[in-house]
Amino acid sequence: MTTRRADERTPVVPLEAGAGPQNPPCPACGEPLFGWIEERPGLAGPVRRCESCGLGAVGGAGGVEEALRELDRLGDDRGVRIANRGGLSASLGDAGWAGLERGSRYLFTPEAVRRLVAHRDQVVKSARWSPGRGLALMWQTILNAFTFGRNGALARFGRATAVPAPATWQRRLDAAISIAAALPALLVAIPLELAGAALGRGSAITVTLELL
Fold this sequence. Notes:
By secondary structure, this protein is an alpha+beta fold.
């Protein structure tokens, strides 16, 4: 029987070793993007994610300029408001995460934003949790676990774009479930989102930028 010496260590494989046609480079940091979610209704293709900065890319990696344009689209005079792919709701929801809206192209984290804007000589001045939006995303993520479609409840409030279920009976059932489960889901969402925020993993983040 072969024994292993106590000082032997399992070799650490760098992320770069996974680079290849199936794992294109992340627009933000250049590390390989790995598979996360298969193609599904409402998305332009499968979703890949970066294990280094956390960026998610839907339907292909794209490049720095495309990712920056998408980031700028999320900004206003108060900052750039992102659904945090590194948040607790994204980890719990996976393919049912409410941040996976119809037409999504890039899914950001504060670290991905930091690395991305460095390409144009900007830095992140602050990254703060957005409690209202964060709670809404956590609440909808929980509801998505029980429905055939996605984001129907937030869409009714004009806070998201729904991806409805394909069949009429499924859509009717989703509406009934959303009504019946709204309050219980909220009671679960509140402590989960507060815990996520305390761990630095809130569901929604507002990032402010400044030039170097």
